[in-house]
Amino acid sequence: MKTLVLACLMFPLAALAADLEAALTIKDHQFTPSELKVPAGKKVKLLVSNLDSTPEEFESHELNREKLVAGHGKATIYIGPLAPGKYPFYGEFHDKTARGVIVAE
Fold first, then answer.
1. Least confident of 16-25, 47-56, 84-93
2. Alpha-carbon span 61 to 98, nearest angstrom
3. Which listed residue, 47, 50, 60, 97, has the most CB atoms within 10 A of its CB?
């Protein structure tokens, strides 16, 4: 019992809450899904999997995020909490085809 009380004091309840997760995949230099809906006002753990053999960079000026995702690699990007709206992103190395938008609602 004493250990449980100590654990509760050391780790606030907010830290125990699980992050909301959303996933993006890069394949053939395109993001799937190209439109990803997330809840407004919540922090989201974005899991990006690159199925291509070449690296890609997740970039969004509106989200203030830039993350290199190695070929056949994965990356975790935390976003939010976001106000309701649309937040475009793109792949810096293939910006003509690797495009998408995160919609917070």
1. 16-25
2. 15
3. 50
The full DSSP string for 61-75 is TTTTEEEEE-TT-EE
Give the whole-number percent of the chain exceeding pLDDT 90.
Answer: 82
Calculate the alpha carbon distances from 87 to 9, 30, 42 in Å.
37, 17, 15
Contacts of 18 (CB under 8 A, 6+ apart): none
Query: Which domains are assigned to the chain?
Result: 18-104 (2.60.40.420)
Q: List, in order, residues 6 or more apart from 3 with CB less than 8 Å away.
A: none
| Token pair 């509106």: residue | 62
